[in-house]
Amino acid sequence: MRWNNLDMNDIDSEFFNSVITGNRATRMMLTQGFLDSKVRDKNGVLWILEKYLSKGGMGKIYIAHKMNTPKQKVVIKMEEMKNNTLSTEINVYQNILETTKLQKWKSMKKDIEFLHFPKMMGSGTFNFRDLRFRFLVIPKFPISLQNFMFKYNLKKLTLIEICQITKTLINSLQFLHYNKYVHADIKSDNIVFLDENYDALQIIMIDYGLAHLFDISKVIRKPMEKFNDGCSGTKHYCSINAHTGVKACFVDDIESICYNIFEWVTGSLDWMRTNHRETLKKKKEFRTNYKNKLQIYKLTKFDFIFTVAYKTPYNEYPDYDLMIDNLYKLYT
């Protein structure tokens, strides 16, 4: 049985009878119906879906492989066309994280120790019944930082590990920001290791579904804040702006890194179990008293990055070189 580029192999007819419309039907299709099926990307390459991995953003994530190369595993992200998250991510891969721009940037920044982004291996769309889906193919990396910490029961990271991870993140963000894009969702789950050596310097920033264009030259002043009962990004780590309806700017990515650093050092955040309104309140209190907080938890070594996060104006670039140089000094 075939729907456009999708081959559904040996799926029980009862499954199809149960598929009507709505979230339950979509969930069933995404977690059951597509396994052992083929999707053909826009370049004609066939990919075999092997295993449902997890839910990410508005869609689902699968382990897969290219036809005739079963040992080379990839990740396929899939979502309904009515959602825009994956469309945004594909756009970032096609227009920002492309080889020519990366090579040009590396030739300009010859002192970068490590700079690596996932490569888009394919993308496409297909129909299933009255629903239309979009998919993206990227490399499969060994493990995320979050899962690595969970696997080895690590509540905290060492000073050297934090400095190396943060330095690589800032190198990556500088490239992204130079190309006028904000990541807007930095967290341990969106940081992966390049390989099974688990080198803290060789980490990769993934998931660009919330990334957006931010052109400083067109920003006259910061927009007015207003409370939203929600946020753009992940509640624990998103910037204060993300809670107040203000479009995230470049320094907001640095603010997100700061919250991650604080958690990596202390094992927790003051707002881990609070609602959005209380989270915003606690983040504002943290911003006001961050120097005292850093002193209490013996984190004054990281004062420079928190100061950049909280003192850089909305329509300016953060001081990347200052942060990178200071981080390098901390672990060498």
UniProtKB/TrEMBL annotation:
Q: Which InterPro entries match?
A: CK1_Ser-Thr_kinase, Kinase-like_dom_sf, Prot_kinase_dom, Ser/Thr_kinase_AS
Cleavable signal peptide: none
Please report a single Pfam family linked to this protein.
Pkinase
Select a single GO molecular function from the record's annotations and give it.
protein serine/threonine kinase activity
For this protein, the Enzyme Commission number is 2.7.11.1
Q: Where is the Protein kinase domain?
A: 47-332
Q: What Gene3D superfamilies does this protein map onto?
A: Transferase(Phosphotransferase) domain 1
Q: What is the uppermost EC class here?
A: transferase
Q: What is this protein called?
A: non-specific serine/threonine protein kinase
Query: In which organism is this protein found?
Result: viral metagenome
